[in-house]
């Protein structure tokens, strides 16, 4: 829900968000600015063909869309590490307010994929 307008998001699957708690010291400056005490949020919709990003590789600390094997680095603004995806996952900037994790700003880009 938008805290100012009280608008509720619809049931679109593009509203899926994934959250990760990472070591704040390992985040690049852009990611650290969007994080709240090491918690980062990204769209869970792959920017390649709109599949769900569902796999977390603990050993490599990468997110994966298992449909076409696109990999994203959540410590570096979800940049594309490999695969056919054309752009990073949009981030959802977070903050801590009154001890609660809340959304600070809208997504940094369009969630989902670009249709041609």
Characterise this structure:
This protein starts with 16 loop residues before the first strand and ends in a 13-residue tail after the last strand. It has one helix and eight strands; from the N terminus they run βαβββββββ. Strand 7 (94-97) and strand 8 (100-103) form a beta hairpin. Strands 3-4-5-6 form a four-stranded antiparallel β-sheet, with no helix packed on it. A two-stranded antiparallel sheet has the order 1-2. With 116 residues, the protein is mainly β.
What descriptors fit this protein?
mainly beta, four-stranded antiparallel sheet, two-stranded antiparallel sheet, 1 helix, 8 strands, 28% strand
Give a nutshell description of this structure:
Helices cover about 5% and strands about 30% of the residues. The chain has one helix at about 30-35; strands at about 15-20, 40-45, 55, 60-65, 70-75, 80, 95, 100-105. The chain is globular.
Helical proportion, percent range: under 10%
Straight-line N-to-C gap: 31 Å
Series of H and E elements: EHEEEEEEE
Low-confidence stretches: none
- The whole-angstrom Rg is 14 Å
Strand order of the largest sheet: 3-4-5-6
The chain-level mean pLDDT equals 91
Tally of helical runs: 1
Shape: globular
Describe the biggest sheet? Answer: 4 strands, antiparallel
Kindly estimate the percentage of residues that lie in beta strands according to DSSP: 25-35%
Would you report the number of β strands?
8
> Helix/strand/pairing class, anyone?
mainly beta
């Amino acid at each position: 829900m938008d805290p100012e307008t009280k608008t509720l998001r619809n049931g679109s699957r593009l509203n899926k968000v994934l959250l990760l708690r990472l070591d704040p010291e390992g985040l690049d400056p852009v990611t650290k600015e969007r994080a709240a005490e090491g918690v980062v949020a990204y769209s869970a919709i792959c920017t390649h063909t709109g599949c769900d990003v569902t796999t977390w590789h603990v050993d490599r600390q990468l997110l994966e869309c298992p449909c076409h094997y696109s990999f994203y680095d959540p410590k570096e603004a979800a940049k594309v590490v490999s695969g056919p995806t054309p752009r990073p996952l949009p981030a959802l900037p977070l903050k801590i307010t009154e001890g609660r994790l809340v959304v600070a700003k809208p997504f940094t880009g369009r969630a989902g994929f670009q249709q041609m």
